[in-house]
Amino acid sequence: MSSEEDELNARYVYVWAFLIAPEHRAEFLRAYGPGGAWEALFQRADGFVGTLLLQDQADPNRYLTIDRWRSAAAHAAFRARFAADYEALDRACERLSTQEQSLGEYWER
Predict the structure, then answer these.
(1) Where are the domains of the chain?
(2) In which element (H, E) is residue 99 found?
(3) pLDDT tens digit string along 35-74?
(4) Assigned CATH topology for domain 3-108
(5) Measured between alpha carbons, how far is 109 from 100 in angstroms, rounded to an integer?
(6) Cα 100–101–107 angle (5° rounding)?
(7) Which of 17, 18, 59, 99 gets the most CB atoms within 10 Å of its CB?
(8) Where are the alpha helices (DSSP H) in the chain?
(9) Which of 42, 107, 104, 51 has the alpha carbon at shortest distance from 77?
(10) Predicted pLDDT at 72
(11) 85 or 10: which leads in pLDDT
């Protein structure tokens, strides 16, 4: 299957891992959790499907976010249209985690 066929037949997903500062847990959950600031920003764009926030059972300070979009093109359009808002929110949330790492982009099957 080609990349174009993948995009037509599967949702685009990207995953981030965070190690949070325990003293900022409540703020982190408000920003990254359901109905939080990130989800509110994403919902302003066409093609946003939803976000999952997962907490590691072995390390309660480690979280994953799974952001789901109808397509890679929808996500790219969002990033282009809301670049300034995205960067501002990213800067505002920097202090909430001690480590942030992209775990990649995926096709949801």
Answers:
(1) 3-108
(2) strand 97-108
(3) 999 999 999 999 999 999 999 999 999 999 999 999 999 9
(4) Alpha-Beta Plaits (3.30.70)
(5) 26
(6) 135
(7) 18
(8) 3-9, 25-32, 37-42, 72-81, 83-93
(9) 42
(10) 94
(11) 85
With CA atoms as reference, report the closest residue to 16 among 35, 36, 37, 38: 38
- With CA atoms as reference, report the closest residue to 51 among 88, 18, 80, 97: 18
CA dist 89 and 69 (Å) reads: 19
Q: Which helix (H) or strand (E) holds 46?
A: none
Query: β-strand 48-55 against 62-69: which pairing, if any?
Result: antiparallel
Half-sphere exposure of residue 12: CA atoms within 13 angstroms, side-chain side:
18
Tokens 């995205």 correspond to 86
* 94/89 Cα distance (integer angstroms): 9
CB-based contact 38:51 (threshold 8 Å): yes
Backbone φ, ψ for residue 84 (5° rounding):
-65, -45
Task: Give the bridge partners for 92, in sequence order.
Answer: none
User: Helices 72-81 and 83-93, interaxial angle, to 10°?
Assistant: 80
Written as one letter, the residue type at 90 is D
